[in-house]
């Protein structure tokens, strides 16, 4: 996905991730930076989330190729 976005000239990326999502550590390992926190409510349950961002998708692609 990030390769396609980069090829289309989109050089940054933002992903909203639930705070309790175990994949949050993976995003951080790939250089994602916490930009903002928020909450939303679904079915009466309030969930915390965080916006993880990358300012350079080229660097992200390099890291993904190493995995």
TrEMBL record:
* InterPro entries, per the entry: Acyl_CoA_acyltransferase
Q: Which domain of life is it from?
A: Bacteria
Gene3D superfamilies to which the protein is assigned, alphabetical: 3.40.630.30
Name it.
Uncharacterized protein
Task: Tell me the organism.
Answer: Paenibacillus roseus
Q: What is the lineage of its organism?
A: Bacteria, Bacillati, Bacillota, Bacilli, Bacillales
